[in-house]
Amino acid sequence: MHTVELEAKAKINLTLDVLYKRPDGYHQVEMIMQEISLKDHLVVSLLPGKDIRIVSNSKAIPDGEANLAFKAAKLLMDEFDLDAGVEIKIFKEIPVAAGLAGGSADAAAVLKGMNELFDLGLTTEDLMRFGEKLGADVPFCVMGGTALACGKGEELTRLPAVPPASLVLIKPPYSVSTREVYNRLKINSIRKRPDTQAVIESIKKGDLEGISRGLCNVLEEVTFAKHPELEKFKEMLKARGAFGSLMSGSGPAVYGIFEAKKDAEKAADSLSLPGCRILISCMG
User: Which residues bind ATP (predicted)?
Assistant: First the structure.
């Protein structure tokens, strides 16, 4: 085998709570992460020598060592002293720097692809441990599905699948720095925190309305202060029938949950937001 094709699926947060800042500089989080159908496509191919080459249809991602997919390939090449290089073609569909873990999803896909190409025999748990060295969201992107994430985000507990639902995502024409958002968060002044356990119970019951009522992300306070239009986007989605709406991660992408695809499509078609990307996806 000289080539492997992979899918790299985005994630959203159903909840996101920040408990405290740790001595190592990271923040202790508790959040429910959900894989969605929006995805990048990757093709990983063997190269002679030990080069790593990134090729993409997007100019918004780096093509060298700053790319998380490059770092994933290098991590396994160094760890196992691999005797060949790889070309990684990334066909981007997930918006960049949007709070949807696009870069982490690509890195997770590369770990899986390298494992297959070089017949490394690594388990999912092994790949998640390597992913932890790359970024807090990478282990979840390796695992997928629905999970409670604690620690930096790498301590994962698998949850039952959420009931099927459609999503409308709005990605404004700008990006947000995750580091800046966390640095500006005043943990002791957070006004509203999620009831994570209540949302988990709704997931276990297959209660989409209960899940939607429980959507909460403490980072909204920070990102909305700088970009107040994001709160209006949430209200627009709810006014068009979304059961609930939330910013994912540190933003700026905002999503709404709809029970039926036709309702999501109708809502998306009715939105007029120049410069924004409006995407339809699904979960469950």
Answer: 95-105
